[in-house]
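Please, structure for the following, as tokens.
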Amino acid sequence: MKRIVSSILLSVFVLSTYAQMEKVTSAYDYLRRKQYDKAKDRIDIATENASSNTKAKTWQYRAYIYQSIATDKNPNVNALDGQAHIKCREAYLKAQELDVKGKYTKEIKDNLPMIERHFFVNAFNKYKAAYEKRQKNVADAAAMEGFKAAISDYNTYISWYPKDTAALFYRGMCSELVNDNEKALVDLKKCVELGKKDKYVYQYLFKIFKKQENWNDAIVYMDKASVLWPNDEYFLNNKIVSYDRAGKLDEVVIKLEESIASKPDNAKAHYLLGYTCSQLYNNESLKKADREKYANKSIEAYKKTIEYDPGNKRAYTDLGIVYYNLGVQKVKESGDAWKDASLSAKLSDQSKVYFKESITYNELHREKIDANDRRVLETLKNAYIKVNNKAKYDEYKAILEGK
């Protein structure tokens, strides 16, 4: 009797298993006919049944079906399951676990990265669509929801790949755009920690530090950026801004002078010293004597830059601008001293010396670096009229008007 019962139970189990595996095959047939809703229904039943959910084939077919739903170009198909990417990935991993004979190894190896990448791109597209909405209408609520949806997807992706700097970066950007600056900083700082060399990471960090008026952290990351991109004007300017707002601009001068003392032919350090001192000279809140001290330091540093790096693209014109600004300053001082004719004339003569030096270095820039730099042409035009050279003024005016 026991043998009969056991035989009956075995038959029932076999029939049940067969019925469930038939659902797996049926699901795959529906997939081939692109009847994704029916394929999904069949495979969901099969993966919930104990007699078929221990088979690698069941999970492999489930992965195929959900991959098709996730990647189809028809949004109505995608809408069949908003978690299709995740379910597909989980199915591949389960199939890999159960596939002791390695039947699906190559397919899983090929397809798993594809579905993960597609999920990443989907998250990026949500960010991009939200950003475009925000550009058209700052108050668009749909844009905010789009950024949050992208963040949710990036959360999932980063749980798979915690060190993926692209995902961390985009999640950080989205967080900043939904005004969650602290979370944005965590992700962006993590990108730097992981060695991501991307200008946008540092630009976004500075943007947040500026909003927070966190100038000490801004200094740290602008220093790092200046090492990575020593000739980038954005980082040079904002490094100076950070030190300036933190009340530490003089520290930059000291550090650069120490660097130059240890390596006098370091053209890069000379240029940075010139640039920093020129910014200090432009600070009208400083005493006149201090401003002129920084102007002279700037001139000396720029000349050293040219000496050690004659092809420097910025030194000639930046030096020309310092001279030009000194000339303008002396013109003003000459006007202010109108009651003392001798002093006024002396200051006027000094202004012309500075304007002539400005002309010299801007002409060198045209000769050696770029003959068509509009800023240089403008400076030359204005400098020539200051030294009463009407012919050269007219020449540069005509050049500028022809551009």
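The radius of gyration is 34 Å. The chain has 19 helices and no strands.
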